[in-house]
Amino acid sequence: MPKNKEEIKIFITRDIPALGIDLLKKEGFTVWAWPHDKPIPSAELIKEGKKANAVLCLSTDPIDEFFLQECKHLDIVSQFAAGYDNIDVAVATRLGIPLGYAPGAMSNATADIAFGLMIAVSRKFFYMHKKIGRGEWTHFRPKADLGIELKNKTLGIFGLGRIGMEMGLRCRGAYNMNIIYTNRKQNEEAEKLLGAKNVSFDELLRQSDVLSVHCALSEETKGIFNKAAFSKMKPTSIFINTARGPVHQEEDLIAALGKGVIWGAGLDVTNPEPMKADNPLLEMENVAILPHIGSATVEARNEMSRMAAVNIVEFYRGNVIPNMINPGVVRK
Q1: Given 220, 276, 279, 284, which residue has the most CB atoms within 10 angstroms?
Q2: How many structural domains compose the chain?
Q3: Domain range holding 307?
């Protein structure tokens, strides 16, 4: 590891908000970034990584076994995101590379998106907007364009962490919704603040009027919302996913919506991403789709930038990394 800060080279894989970049430069590090407004190709990522002592990456970058083996000299990798399913954590840990991330930075922003999608789906906002553009707003029709109300309904949360908690607070406060959840472990804080009830996955599916996904992507959660899961949900239910696209099987979701197995869906994440322009979900009446903008606020992106940078700063100061993915790693 270099002894002088000016010898420490930090590569950033995209042009992120200046807050984090300025922190790194102020610390005296040599900092450079991938200059293009598109994902860095794997070969270029490795090429630049080999020049660096540390990499600040995005969740779209493949920090996989191949990259880590090619760049096993790295002192630290810090991610501009709360999720890290793009990183092979086991390999990084085996190679002794500590990993940082930015949990909590986008909790409010992403919960706002989930909450907004829920309302948009319940009243068919996106579809109704398109009807105006097609010249189909004509006369009042008492039985047409009907949505559903949310007050006193049951919100089911799959993955009740920071973002799920914020979603629960919004739904409880605005609509007095009953909160149930399925989690890897009991969330006592949510049970106290929201009156939330921990239920099995099957019960979550059966009882939820709105089912909002806020889990991490893992082998256990990949594809868990499939034909079998949707078939257990209420025909009046709304499915919301602002977590990761692969958590749901998109063909199964299309079929469930088309056959009326569930009532509607709101997605900020799709499977795959980006979604193709001819995807039938985009034309469905009870569906609202956004292009993965959960963290897209000035405040959230600034905080993500700051947190990712601080992980690197504190590492080189010899302190504990504030937000570390693999705390059991042996420091080089």
Answers
A1: 284
A2: 2
A3: 5-105+297-316
Catalytic residue among 123, 292, 301, 306: 292
Indicate the pTM of the whole model.
Answer: 0.94
Burial (CB count <10 Å: 0-12, 13-18, 19+), residue 173: exposed
Q: Which of 244, 248, 301, 306 is catalytic?
A: 244
Per-residue pLDDT tens over the stretch 242-271:
999 999 999 999 999 999 999 999 999 999
Same domain (yes/no): 89, 123? no
Give, for 31, the enclosing helix (H) or strand (E).
Answer: strand 30-33
Can you tell me the distance from the alpha carbon of 289 to that of 281, in angstroms, rounded to the nearest whole number? 8
Task: Give Cβ neighbours of residue 96 (< 8 Å, ≥ 6 apart).
Answer: 329, 330, 331, 332
Determine the pLDDT at residue 2: 63
User: Domain holding 83: CATH number?
Assistant: 3.40.50.720
The reply to whether 292 belongs to the active site is yes
pLDDT value at residue 6: 74
Q: What share of the chain is helix, strand, coil (3-state, %, to 5)?
A: 40, 15, 45
Instruction: Reply yes or no on whether 273 is catalytic.
Output: yes
Catalytic-role residue among 6, 188, 273, 299: 273
